[in-house]
C-alpha cells in the first residue's frame, strides 16, 4: 500500500512537470507571436528612416496598442514606440492603468519609456534585444525593478533577439552608407 502511494506521488510530480513545460512552451510561442508584431511595427519606422523600434501592448490575447519610433517624423523626443503604444492602449481601455497587459518591444526601453511603463502599471515587459548604451531595463539601469517604486514589472529578454538585433544593425549600417555617399557627393 505504501509503495502505491509513493508511485502515485511520483506520477503526480511528473505530470506537474509536464504541465509546467507545456505552459512554458505556450508562453514562448505567445511571446514570439507578439514580438513578430512588434518587429512589423519596427519595420514601419525603418521605412520612414527612423530607428527601427516597434512595440505592441497585449491584453487578454488581443493587441490594444501599437507603436513605432517617429521622433524625426513628428519632430518630438516623446515619439518613441513604447510611448505611442501606451497612449493608444490607454485610449482603447479608457484607463491609464494597464495592469493586466504585456508590453512587447524590439529594443530595451530607455529611461523615459521605462518610466512610462512603471507609471502605467504594466506588469510584464518582453524585450527583443538589449541596449547596452541606453537601456533602462537592465543594461545601464533597471528602472523596471526599483523596489522603492510602488510598481515593478517582470522582464523577459531575448525573444527573437537575432531578428531584433539584425534590424538595428542593418538600419545603422544603411545609415552610415547613406552618410558616406552624401559626404562624397558634397566633396565633389
TrEMBL record:
Keywords: Hydrolase, Metal-binding, tRNA processing, Zinc. Its EC number is 3.5.4.33. InterPro entries: APOBEC/CMP_deaminase_Zn-bd, CMP_dCMP_dom, Cytidine_deaminase-like, MafB19-deam, tRNA_aden_deaminase. PROSITE patterns: CYT_DCMP_DEAMINASES_1, CYT_DCMP_DEAMINASES_2. Coiled coil: none annotated. Residues 29-141 form the CMP/dCMP-type deaminase domain. HAMAP family: tRNA_aden_deaminase (MF_00972). This is tRNA-specific adenosine deaminase. It comes from Candidatus Mediterraneibacter quadrami. The lineage of its organism: Bacteria, Bacillati, Bacillota, Clostridia, Lachnospirales.
Amino acid at each position: 500500500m505504501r509503495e502505491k502511494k509513493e508511485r502515485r506521488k511520483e506520477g503526480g510530480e511528473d505530470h506537474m512537470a509536464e504541465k509546467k513545460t507545456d505552459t512554458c512552451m505556450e508562453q514562448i510561442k505567445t511571446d514570439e507571436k507578439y514580438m513578430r508584431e512588434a518587429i512589423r511595427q519596427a519595420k514601419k519606422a525603418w521605412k520612414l528612416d527612423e530607428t527601427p523600434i516597434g512595440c505592441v501592448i497585449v491584453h487578454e490575447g488581443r493587441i490594444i496598442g501599437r507603436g513605432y519610433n517617429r521622433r524625426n517624423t513628428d519632430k518630438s523626443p516623446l515619439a518613441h514606440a513604447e510611448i505611442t503604444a501606451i497612449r493608444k492602449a490607454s485610449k482603447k481601455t479608457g484607463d491609464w492603468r494597464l495592469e493586466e497587459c504585456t508590453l512587447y518591444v524590439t529594443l530595451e526601453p530607455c529611461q523615459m519609456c521605462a518610466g512610462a511603463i512603471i507609471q502605467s502599471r504594466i506588469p510584464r515587459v518582453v524585450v527583443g534585444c538589449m541596449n547596452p548604451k541606453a537601456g533602462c531595463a537592465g543594461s545601464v539601469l533597471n528602472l523596471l525593478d526599483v523596489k522603492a517604486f510602488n510598481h515593478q514589472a517582470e522582464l523577459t529578454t531575448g525573444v527573437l533577439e537575432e531578428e531584433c538585433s539584425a534590424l538595428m544593425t542593418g538600419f545603422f549600417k544603411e545609415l552610415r552608407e547613406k552618410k558616406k555617399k552624401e559626404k562624397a557627393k558634397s566633396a565633389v
